[in-house]
Design brief:
This protein is of the alpha+beta class. It contains 8 helices and 13 strands. The strands form 3 sheets. Strands 1, 3, 4, 5, 6 and 7 form a 6-stranded mixed sheet that branches. Strands 8, 9, 10, 11 and 12 form a 5-stranded mixed sheet that branches. Strands 2-13 form a two-stranded parallel sheet. This is SseB protein N-terminal domain-containing protein.
Length: 260
């Protein structure tokens, strides 16, 4: 059972539970997916294999390369994309997603309208401000669903930062909120980490919630203050050949491959 299988099973077990449905789409957006192609990519242009199903069009994606091989009954050309980049690429094209069809428990058809909704939901970009909290406190009053979503999202941010702390924060003027503070983020990974936190908030089902994101070096005295009161999240260490998020073709949602 892959993480996508588990999220799909939870959604199927509780069809009336909006939170379970949101968690599935969150997992889909945060996963690296294998998109079946008609031919090998040509630069930044790809030609997905498109299948008609009940007068609709679908491309096929899988969360494991071996699942694509099983479906195709042998090697097949593919492109590896994040779910976020795939949704951005397909938005407005009238094309749905066939996920793990016939080869996994998470086999599902997602119609074009739902793909458009996912792309629109993911399109909100965090706002950048220059503001440092005046006081920190342990996080309090946050829904368990949000903490679970943050933990799942950060578990996929391999090698992008050393750790993160979730704290309560009070700013100049008395504004209070919560801050997710990353320590020793890889240069260039900040936008991807900010999006991951924003997505966790969006798909946790918390209405009208906000969560600030900050980046600090371990040498900054502020990092010691975070460690004293914060809820710590340890991010997975980088693989032997680490890549900054968005460096691989198709993995940057702001520059998805182009259909041809």
């Amino acid at each position: 059972m892959t993480p996508l299988d588990q999220a799909h099973a939870a959604m199927e077990a509780a069809p009336a539970d909006d939170a379970a449905r949101l968690r599935f789409y969150d997992r889909l957006a945060g996963s690296e997916l294998v998109l079946m192609l008609e031919a090998e990519p040509e630069g930044d242009r790809i030609r997905p294999a498109i299948f008609p199903v009940e007068e609709q069009r679908f491309v096929l994606v899988f969360d494991r390369e071996e699942r694509l091989t099983a479906f195709a009954e042998g090697p097949a050309p593919y492109a590896a994309l994040s779910g976020r980049a795939l949704a951005a690429m397909l938005a407005g094209q009238g094309i749905g997603l066939g996920v793990n069809l016939g080869v996994a428990p998470s086999s599902i058809l997602i119609e074009a309208g739902s793909v458009d909704w996912l792309a629109e939901t993911l399109a909100t970009a965090p706002e950048e401000v220059e503001e440092r909290p005046e006081a920190l406190s342990p996080p309090a009053g946050l829904p368990e669903a949000l903490l679970t979503a943050l933990d799942a999202r950060l578990a996929t941010a391999e090698g992008l930062a050393r750790m993160a702390y979730l704290v309560g924060a009070t700013y100049a003027g008395g504004r209070r909120g919560h801050l997710m503070a990353f320590v020793d983020a890889v240069p260039g990974a900040e936008p991807a980490l900010a999006r991951a936190v924003g997505d966790a908030l969006t798909f946790s089902g918390v209405e009208a919630g906000t969560l600030d994101v900050g980046f600090f070096r371990v040498s900054d005295p502020f990092a010691a203050r975070l460690a004293r009161v914060g809820l710590r999240f340890d991010l997975p260490e980088a693989a032997p050949s680490p890549q900054v998020a968005g460096a691989a073709p198709g993995m940057d949602p702001d520059r998805p491959p182009r259909l041809r």
